[in-house]
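testing teh design pipeline on a random one, pls ignore if ur not involved
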């Protein structure tokens, strides 16, 4: 084998794994959404639709580059806990939690999971965040989303 052919062979072997990695599709992000409403609730459906539309404006499309798993709490704390368990088991990258029971249910199961919460009247008073300016906590990451 000639020197040039050998160098070309080595160069191709060295770059082919990089090229293969570059062509791999990125991992689909996963969002868990824990809604306190019943699944047939018009208000709950409106919130989910608004959330999906806001994500689409940012370039995130359900089923294309993000998977949104929704669990309906049915307005009960026990069902919210059950939903939190189901969603956390799916290993989401972040959870949207509607209401205080949803946020705390997720937080108790996986304290380091980022949680975006809505419909919490007094997140500082309830102890979800230290302050609205700096919502992070030592062991918890909560964020407020305003739509």
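output:
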């Amino acid at each position: 084998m000639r020197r040039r052919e050998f160098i070309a062979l080595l160069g191709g072997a060295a770059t082919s794994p990089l090229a293969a990695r570059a062509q791999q599709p990125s991992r689909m992000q996963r969002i868990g959404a824990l809604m306190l409403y019943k699944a047939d609730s018009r208000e709950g459906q409106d919130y989910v639709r608004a959330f999906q539309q806001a994500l689409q404006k940012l370039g995130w499309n359900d089923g294309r580059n993000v998977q949104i798993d929704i669990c309906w709490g049915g307005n009960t704390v026990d069902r919210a806990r059950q939903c939190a368990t189901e969603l956390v088991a799916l290993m989401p990258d972040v959870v949207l939690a509607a209401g205080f029971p949803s946020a705390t249910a997720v937080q108790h199961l996986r304290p380091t999971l980022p949680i975006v919460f809505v419909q919490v009247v007094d997140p500082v008073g309830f102890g979800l965040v230290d302050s609205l300016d700096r919502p992070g906590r030592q062991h918890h990451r909560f964020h407020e989303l305003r739509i």
